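Quick check before the chapter quiz. The format below is the same one you will see on the exam, so make sure you can read both the input and the output lines.
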Amino acid sequence: MKRLVKHTLLVAGISQMIAGLAIASGNPVDKYTFKAGDPSLREWLLPDIPPTPADNPLTRERIELGKTLFFDPRLSGDGTIACSSCHSPMFGWSDGLPTGKGFQGQVLKRASPTIVNTAFNSIQMWDGRKRSLEDQALGPMETSAEMNMDLPKLFQFLKSSQRYRELFERAYPGEPVGGDTVAKAIASYERTIVSNDSPFDRWVKGDANAMTPAQIDGFKVFVDKDKGNCAACHQGGNFTDNGFHNLGLASYGEKNPDMGRYAQLPLKMMKGAFKTPTLRDIDRTAPYFHDGSAKTLEEVVAHYVDGGHVKKDLDPNMKPLKISKQDERNLVAFMHALTTAPKAVSLPNIPLN
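Here is the expected output.
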């Protein structure tokens, strides 16, 4: 019995020594043992169909109408800007610019967010001033700096088009052509723009070859509170907490900075705070952050490693990261695994005037 106890203690001592040597050498024992198909990872998956409001269920006719409106530049004041101008499938449903470009070339102060998976969001836009896709749809049209459209004039035009009248009647029979049906139709189309079949999704579902070892290690850094701690904000299947955070971007140190959520909710903790974006299809939506200040994912990771540039009003989770260069590379590799292969998007037949 004494020999057994001594043997057990000896083995335990050797195990602790090996662990200590591993930590001292910069190679800590892996605290995560994730494997493809692990049931504990199911929380990172999205449903095939996003939630829809009871008063606007998805139908083929509503999607067709919404798509037609989405790509029609006549929804803008001068007939040159469509919703798709700033949310193009060629740029991951964004525009590839640091900040958006609006009516007659006006440079806007914020980046055009992707509309990928916005159907899963509980709140919309960088500052959260709109709750639903229906709520948000008309905003850019009537904003003078963006599409600068007079909405009564738009509704009159849509009613004057025989083809549009037919599309509206099929999509919303018996309902008038107006703000409600226009918003609902565009929202219906946006609910079809979904990313949920990435290498990461396939790995979670059990395909052991879907992700590379570096990407799997990057996921471990991503969720590790003592390393990346990325999952503190980028949570769940859509990789967002739908919350607002000040990340200490350099632009916040400028004179009269964009105050973000604070303009909608004047609480100290909301100063300079912006909505957590999805990481789905992230490698197709550069540049990054609400001000487009990071050109690459490597720059994004470097920003977090530094704990932000401007330390004023920082989110409590914004602290310098203690990770290796290999960890940084693995994080970037993992984010590349969050992109679904793009699908071909056919342009609709825009009704003639």
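If your answer matched, good. The chain has two domains: 31-46+197-336, 60-190.
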